[in-house]
Amino acid sequence: MRHSRQTVFPGIGPAGQARIRSARALVAGCGGLGAEAASLLARAGVGFLRIVDRDVVEITNLQRQALFDEDDVRERRPKAVAAARRLARVASDVAVEPVFAEIAPGSVLGLVAGVDVVVDGLDNLEGRYLLNDACVREGIPWVYGASIGSEGVSALVVPGRTPCLRCLEPDPPGPGVSPTCATEGVLGPAAHAVASLEAAQALRWLVTREVPDPPVLVSVDVWRLAFHRAELPPRNPSCRCCGERRFEFLGAGGDPAGGRASRSPFGQRS
Ligand SMILES: [Zn+2]
User: What is the crossing angle of helices 188-208 and 34-44, to 10°?
Assistant: First the structure.
């Protein structure tokens, strides 16, 4: 009954809802993207959510992060904990595991363990290379998402079936090269649009196990009112990550490329 509005949707149905119910997801980062994605996934009935974030709720978060309130700011609650408290009142049928920690080379494999899909709610590109390494190594699909200003992008990465992050952009730009939301700003509607795209791709994956053919990168600009769907190139067979299975970001220090500006759609966002 609770999920009747999506079980009557033909793409999901009762069988799809059962798959959603039995699924486990990791929300990696619980800011503008992750908080909204976590809310959508919990409301959709994903049975288990692990929410990982290293920050406490700050007043500047409330402009776009609708899971949090001023009480969380006053109490300096970790975002993962505040999200779990809120979601317990929204969807008590969903098990939420809050983890107040940084996603680091030493912890990421434990964090992705046992989940069916990972949703990217990170605020930095370096973390996404780490997530990509961990997910490709373990064969776990992950949904890339990034937002800045009035814009955002998202894509589904399924190891072995779609290009991975390093197929498209072999090395991250150096520190300080990519713009960040702290310096460039970000609109609530932009972050929510991307989070919605991410949650939709995660749910679609959980229900269908299908990937778009060819794989696509969806971009949106909520100020210019523009949506764009770009076909991604095929996997790079000599990709160091999903081709040669060298997981350089999981090791000590990884293999960052230092200082180079990125031209790919992945590299332009924080
Ligand atoms: Zn690859």
Answer: 40
Q: How far is the CA of 131 from the centre of ligand 1 (A)?
A: 13
- pLDDT exceeds cutoff 70 at 124: yes
Taking the centre of ligand 1 as the mean of its atom positions, its distance from the CA of residue 180, in whole angstroms, is 25
Q: CA nearest 49: which of 39, 57, 58?
A: 39
**Class of 4-231 in CATH:** alpha beta
Other beta carbons within 10 angstroms of residue 8's beta carbon come to 10
CA of 243 to the centre of ligand 1 (A): 6
What type of residue is 97? E
Runs of H (alpha helix) within the chain:
4-7, 13-21, 34-44, 70-74, 79-90, 108-112, 125-138, 165-168, 181-184, 188-208
Q: What is the pLDDT of residues 161-171, one digit of tens each?
A: 999 999 999 99
Provide the pLDDT for residue 266. 52
Asked if 213 contacts 220 with a C-beta cutoff of 8 angstroms, the reply is: no
- Prediction pTM value: 0.92
Protein residues placing their CB within 5 Å of the ion ligand 1: 164, 166-167, 239, 241-242
Return the domain boundaries, the chain: 4-231
Q: Which positions are annotated as active-site residues?
A: 181
